[in-house]
Design goal:
The protein has a domain at about 80-195: Immunoglobulin-like (Sandwich), CATH 2.60.40. It is built from three helices and ten strands; from the N terminus they run αααββββββββββ. A hairpin with a 2-residue loop joins strand 6 (about 135-140) and strand 7 (about 145-155). The longest helix has 18 residues, at about 1-20. About 15% of the residues lie in helices and about 35% in strands. The radius of gyration is 36 Å and the shape is elongated. The chain has about 200 residues and is of the alpha+beta class.
């Protein structure tokens, strides 16, 4: 019973405080401004030369998930293309990498290539110093036969253009060559690879 009286008393006091309003005549008697003692202002601290961004520590659950995550695939080792000379039309092949997949515009690492229905990629990094776009063709060749014939365009005035040719027609084991040619047929670079 005492608990009930206490609860009622608390509720009534809260209602009384919340519902009390000041009489408008009393409000008009209060001064609009109050005098405060004069205190000399402290000098403002100097602003830092560069504001450092504040970052919060991630919650522990995020840290645990990060530790359990699988390591990302390493990009494939890149080897310079067999031809790295700049041709008169401004095109140059910087690297060619043969891979089974592309991840974030980079070739994924592969230990070996086996005959498969999966696509095969010739990842190519090129430069085009000319004032106009230039076309290239990527082919996959073996024993005098070529497949793929992927036509691509390299924009003008581009020091680093990454692209790739893809084919599913490499279905035989053996030694292959990926060849990059200009639109007029001049060889820009090539990369040998073996399919097991």
């Amino acid at each position: 019973m005492n608990e009930r009286r206490f609860a009622v008393a608390v509720a009534l006091s809260l209602v009384a405080v919340a519902c009390s309003r000041q009489d408008p005549t009393e409000a008009s008697r209060e001064p609009l401004a109050r005098a405060t003692p004069a205190v000399p202002a402290a000098p403002a601290p100097a602003a830092p030369a560069r504001a450092e961004p504040k970052t919060a520590d991630p919650p522990a659950s995020v840290l645990v998930k990060a530790e359990k995550a699988e390591p990302a695939k390493k990009p494939a080792k890149s080897h310079p293309a067999s031809t790295d000379a700049v041709l008169p039309d401004g095109l140059a092949v910087k690297r060619i990498v043969i891979t089974r997949s592309i991840d974030k515009r980079e070739p994924a690492a592969v230990d070996r290539l086996v005959v498969s229905d999966e696509p095969l990629y010739a990842f190519v990094e090129l430069a085009n110093g000319s004032d106009s776009a230039a076309g290239v063709v990527i082919t996959f060749e073996r024993e005098g036969k070529s497949v793929g014939h992927v036509k691509l365009e390299v924009p003008a005035k581009n020091a680093r253009w990454r692209t790739w040719g893809k084919t599913k027609q490499v279905r035989q084991a053996g030694d292959w060559v990926a060849v990059v040619r200009s639109a007029d047929g001049a060889e820009l670079g090539k990369k040998s690879f073996t399919v097991e």
